[in-house]
Amino acid sequence: MEESLMANKITLFSKNNCMQCKMTKKLLEKAGADFQEINMDERPDMIDYVKSLGFTAAPVIKAGEIAFSGFQPNKLKEII
């Protein structure tokens, strides 16, 4: 699974009805970032993976060795 996540530079783990997820996705799209989105409501099997990274709330952004949660524009700009 880790290899498939690395195929894209940035992976956004999101959930439905999550305003911070929507804001994060919008920022990534506006910046033209190469990212994939995984909706954990549609892929509940990914919840354990996100928890293994140490996160319990969406959105979670993973880019290589970097991972963080929440809408953090400054961190997003650093990885784009």
Automatic annotation (TrEMBL):
* Function in brief: Electron transport system for the ribonucleotide reductase system NrdEF.
Describe the family membership recorded for this protein in Swiss-Prot or TrEMBL.
Belongs to the glutaredoxin family.
Q: Which organism is it from?
A: Streptococcus lutetiensis 033
Any one GO biological process = cell redox homeostasis
In terms of PROSITE patterns, this protein maps to: GLUTAREDOXIN_2 (PS51354)
Q: Which UniProt keywords apply?
A: Disulfide bond, Electron transport, Redox-active center, Transport
This chain's protein is named Glutaredoxin-like protein NrdH
High-level lineage? Bacteria, Bacillati, Bacillota, Bacilli, Lactobacillales
Per its UniProt record, what CDD domains does this chain match?
NrdH
Q: Boundaries of each Glutaredoxin domain copy?
A: 10-62
Annotated NCBIfam families: GlrX_NrdH
Q: What Gene Ontology molecular function terms does this protein carry?
A: electron transfer activity
- Domain of life, per UniProt, equals Bacteria
